[in-house]
Design goal:
The chain has 99 residues and is of the alpha/beta class. It has one domain: 3-Layer(aba) Sandwich (Rossmann fold). It has a four-stranded mixed sheet. Belongs to the small GTPase superfamily. Rab family.
Length: 99
């Protein structure tokens, strides 16, 4: 093993994406993690999970766990368990929804 491999550091960060149904949470998470957009709307049931690995200066490797929480889950019994341990929370809203 080389010195640079021994000096590398690995980190994991949990990101949760929250918001009403059909506001674009999955589209944003998919674009971020997989660099793609879905062509059709598909409702998220419960949650979807994405991984994105990035390398930062100083041999720091970061795995971002993106938890895309379905809009119907907001207010549900599992929400606190999905959000627990998150390092980042993103709340997504649509400007098209006036409520």
């Amino acid at each position: 093993m080389s010195d640079s491999e021994e000096d590398s550091q690995d980190r994991q960060l949990k990101i949760v994406v929250l918001g009403d149904g059909a506001c674009g949470k999955t589209s944003l998470a998919t674009r971020f993690a997989q660099e793609a957009f879905g062509k059709q709307y598909k409702q998220t049931i419960g949650l979807d999970f994405f991984l994105k690995r990035i390398s930062l200066p100083g041999n720091l490797n970061v795995t971002l766990q993106v938890w895309d929480i379905g809009g119907q889950t907001i207010g549900g019994k599992m929400l606190d368990k999905y959000v627990y341990g998150a390092h980042v929370s993103q709340i997504i809203m649509s400007h098209l929804d006036s409520q």
